[in-house]
Amino acid sequence: MSDELTWRSGGCHCGAVRFEAALPDQVDAQDCNCSMCSKTGFIHIIVPESRFRLVSGQDDLTSYIFNTGVARHLFCRVCGVKSFYRPRSNPDGWSVNARCLDAPEALSITVAPFDGRDWEAHGAELAHLSKEPK
Questions:
Q1: 65-79 confidence digits (pLDDT tens)
Q2: Mapping DSSP to helix (H, G, I), strand (E, B) and coil, where does residue 105 land?
Q3: Is residue 2 scored above 80 in pLDDT?
Q4: Domains in the chain and their CATH numbers?
Q5: How far is CA 105 from CA 71, 87, 98, 99, 101, in A?
Q6: What is the DSSP secondary-structure string of 18-74?
Q7: Distance between CA atoms of 67 and 38, rounded to whole angstroms?
Q8: What does pTM read for this prediction?
């Protein structure tokens, strides 16, 4: 497996919103059990700002903000799918939904459980994921 990054494409169900994320072949992802993630089936791949780009659909995004107001949940206003969002744990990066990548089978994705229900005790565990590697 290589640490080299490749731009991987993805998007919502209807195709109105399209994004790209620069990812290595081997990816660590989180399956959060908080109320939002468990209800939507979101599998997190958190990347720094520089490794994410919105390709199309800016005008088709709508947001949902709750609780602390830090996370910005973005949904396609046409089909309702949340392909990516600005996470509370990493407000300087993006969380991409592994299930919204066009070819997730091209990656080796290791999914680990994350206890988001007890956010205050565990939220800081993810903070490093949006930092640029040194």
A1: 988 888 899 999 999
A2: helix
A3: no
A4: 6-116 (2.170.150.70)
A5: 28, 24, 10, 10, 9
A6: EEEEEE-SEEEEEEE-SHHHHHHT-EEEEEEGGGEEEEE-GGGEEEE--TTS--EEE
A7: 16
A8: 0.92
